[in-house]
Amino acid sequence: MLKKSLIALLLTTGMAMSAFAADIVVRVNPPRAQRENRGRAPQRGYVYQPGYQNWDGNRHNWVGGHWEAPPRRGARWDAHRWQRRGNTWVLVEGRWR
């Protein structure tokens, strides 16, 4: 039983470290969001995912927004955003809730 718990702990820790290692952390303040023309949704129920400033390793690049069907009824989209942490900026990726 202890062995299974230890394996589960190691797997959980490894996944958490992998998720943390994937964070995009930069010292460059992201530019303001660009103004977008959403247009009309392609179908009823689609949700607009607004564009955001992404980091390519050297600079910020604008990724345009798009319409997407939610994965399930009542799902809500939390948009990508840059969060200040001390003297750095971290990209918090968008996700469905």
Give helix % range: 10-25%
Q: Could you spell the SSE succession in H and E letters?
A: HEEEEEEEEE
Mean pLDDT: 83
Give me the count of strands.
9
Outline the biggest β-sheet.
Answer: 3 strands, antiparallel
Query: Compute the gyration radius: what is it?
Result: 18 Å
Q: Structural class from helices and strands?
A: alpha+beta
- Number of helices in the DSSP assignment: 1
What spatial form do the alpha-carbon principal axes imply? globular
Q: Uncertain regions: pLDDT < 50 for 5+ in a row?
A: 2-21
Number of structural domains: 1
Strand arrangement across the biggest beta sheet: 1-8-7
Share of β-strand residues = 25-35%
Amino-to-carboxy terminus distance: 34 Å
Essential attributes:
globular, single chain, disordered N terminus, 21% helix, two-stranded antiparallel ribbon, 97 residues, alpha+beta, three-stranded antiparallel β-sheet
